[in-house]
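Translate structure to sequence.
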């Protein structure tokens, strides 16, 4: 993976960085931490600048996010309600009112969610889908995505640029931190699912 990322950057420069980040947004398993940190490393030995890498990666982030936004827009609320109320959709054990509640929640807190989720691995990509599903205004989505992505990209590019001979140590720390964050996300998700179904059971009894 590391050799592939470096080869793309060497051959295509800023365009390669933007393209890698765009792909990372659509396919979260590709680690943006590695791409951005390597982008920072490249500013030491090549003609690429820190500002150029940040701008290229941010453009890639926004373009990738827009693609997922429109995927979410295609899978809009009305279509989801049709799916969950269909014969096979009932197997999902999700009610139309659950979707309505989720949509309302995103309408109220979607702006902050889109911004802050840009700092969380995997989630920073997937959050674009519910933004599209909830029909968050595209301009507002782009603004929050741009600011959130720019901050995240800047931090990692700077880490790479100033790492120097500690490159391997930095990559190890980033890799370990990513696993920890993903594990925490899974735990939080499981807690959310547990509380959600517990609340539904309680409502049924009452």
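Result:
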């Amino acid at each position: 993976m590391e050799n592939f990322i470096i080869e793309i950057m060497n051959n295509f420069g800023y365009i390669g960085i933007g393209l890698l980040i765009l792909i990372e947004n659509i396919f979260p398993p590709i680690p943006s931490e590695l791409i951005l940190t390597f982008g920072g490393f490249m500013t030491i030995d090549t003609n690429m600048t820190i500002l150029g890498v940040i701008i290229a990666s941010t453009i890639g982030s926004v373009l990738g996010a827009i693609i997922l936004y429109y995927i979410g827009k295609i899978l809009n609320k009305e279509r989801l309600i049709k799916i969950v109320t269909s014969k096979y959709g009932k197997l999902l054990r999700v009610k139309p009112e659950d979707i309505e509640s989720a949509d309302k929640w995103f309408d109220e807190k979607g702006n902050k969610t889109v911004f802050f989720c840009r700092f969380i691995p995997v989630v920073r990509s997937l959050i674009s889908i519910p933004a599209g599903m909830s029909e968050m205004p595209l301009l507002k989505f782009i603004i929050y995505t741009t600011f959130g992505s720019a901050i995240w990209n800047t931090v990692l590019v700077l880490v790479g640029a100033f790492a120097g001979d500690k490159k391997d140590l930095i990559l190890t720390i980033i890799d370990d931190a990513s696993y920890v964050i993903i594990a925490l996300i899974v735990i939080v998700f499981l807690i959310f699912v547990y509380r959600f179904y517990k609340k539904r059971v309680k409502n049924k009894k009452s």
